[in-house]
Write a structure and sequence with these properties.
The chain folds into two domains: 320 residues, YVTN repeat-like/Quinoprotein amine dehydrogenase (Methylamine Dehydrogenase, Chain H, 7 Propeller); 215 residues, Methylamine Dehydrogenase, Chain H. The chain has no helices and 56 strands. The protein is elongated. Strands 33, 34, 35, 36 and 37 form a five-stranded antiparallel β-sheet that branches. A four-stranded antiparallel β-sheet has the order 1-56-55-54, with no helix packed on it. A four-stranded antiparallel β-sheet has the order 2-3-4-5, with no helix packed on it. The chain is mainly β and 616 residues long. This is WD40 repeat-like protein. Keywords: Repeat, WD repeat.
Amino acid sequence: MSFTKKEYFAPAPVTTRGQPVRLSADPKGEQFVYASGKTIVVRNLSNLEKAWEYTEHTSQTTVAKFSPSGYYIASGDVSGRVRIWDIVNDDHILKSEFQPISGRISDISWDPDSQRIVAVGDGKGSFGHFFTFDSGNTVGTITGHSKVINACSMRQRRPFRAVTCSDDGTSVFYHGAPYKFVSLLSDHSGFVQDAKYAPSDDYFVTVGADKKIFLYDGKTGELVRQVAAGSPEEAHTGSISAVAWSPDSKYILTSSGDRTCKFWDIESDRLIGTVKIGGTSSSPDHQQVGNLWAGEHIISLSLSGDINVLKMDAAEPVKVVYGHQKSITAASLTQSKLLYTGSYDGRLCVWDFSARPSSAPLGVAALVQGSTGDTRPEDAAAAGDLVAFGFLDDTLRFVENSAIVAGGSVSLSAAPRSVAIDSTGTVTIAVLANDDLVVISKGKATHVPVKETSAAARAVAIDHGSSLVAVGFQDNSVHLYKLQDAQLAPAGAKVTAHQREITSLAFSPTGDLLASGDSAGKIIVSKAQSGELVTSRWGSHTARIYGISWSPDGAHAASASLDGHVIVWSVEQPARKIFIRNAHMGGAAAVSFIDNETVVSAGADGGVKVWGITYA
């Protein structure tokens, strides 16, 4: 028994309002890299569906940059640690690790020899450091700034030069190597958000919160001019967070909090195009916080994490790539093989697996229409093509055909922590955060009195074939009920083999078996009608079970756990299992079988992964 990772659908870049995000492309312009939680994501520029991840950071990552040689990536995190690792081999061997500052790394830049690095950010005693990539030896000193440094850029040919920019409203120009302070550039009147050398190295440009763009001589650091100073009506109306140069060094792209991206001709000093992001929406989600120009690929990043693909002659993005920035907290697969996922920030996405595994991967999520995205989903359950989501704002909402069902929201007395929906899609059972068990039908929630135990309910599941209902309780027991006319009647059977509270339940496709998971990571399989034990040997998880899914043929089940692992189990041979270790950093939140040999999982890393399963 074995597995292969067939597909990886990456999370979106993590953003913070008012904080620029750095994107970096490899020297060939084929891939770009960004930070997302504790994960560094490398994505294909020509085919944005293709991506891979690096997960060796133990703190939240903030920035990653390709070396000019294309052999390494240097990535930084909130602790001030910088890791330099190999990207040629699949095991991504760590070359070196340093802590240049004692706080968040904001930006990293390499010299043209791929030997020296400058890392800047929000340190306690220093805001940045110049050092060699292999030994960490000091090759310069950061001076001249009194506040956090937002960006840095190193000249890619001799004589070596570097520039840094800061919240103190200044930029500092350095000669190297070793790099030393030469001049303080005080042309901006607010935070300086980004600084970039042109590919030709003849100029560098800075942008800031004052909505201004300044062009400097790349060799001397002298001011050349303010870009388009004579056309204030064409300027951004919000803070400029990022700037990128065209490969021929003739144009620059600026991205702003005014929800626009602008293309500027440096030679003629004029605006040549504006791209409006988000249409007529005034939502701050469409504020632009980062950008990239690599070959023919032009990208700007929204505060929401959306990746906007731009063209110079287009007034709006030609493509938008969606994903999750935060942990996925709920997911469910429909009969039509649409996977609906919801994340901690309330975003709902849908992924189409209907054509798998024969056709090419889609890999890019669509947003669920009508979703407000203001509160996180606690659980999700599907019946046919209808999905019920329980939200933290004490509501139950239904999704169908990639959209919120109009008028389908049901207000409850507390947040639904576990939900199940019957085969007709008309009756939903929910376990609420106030320990109440309710049946929802025709928009009305009815309390279900439980006489079999005084313990609080924790999890619920419905068998779509027989309408048998399983409810897991805090006293480690599972009781079976019959759903009749939107009421629950005791079925007499119960499961008592657990030693911890029940956290997840799932009936097999035929309804004859019930898998129950608990807070200690133990899974028990019982006969659904009688509660008789089938196996108690599914016990390899070390933390809470978040989800259980059965294969269509009922021969196997998959589990997702807080320990980050996904395990595929065999009913006939309980000791045999397929152990997918560290499937999701921070915890695996949900798992489903697409078919008997394909499993999809989602988790705290915000990613969705497809696993090919071989049972032989």
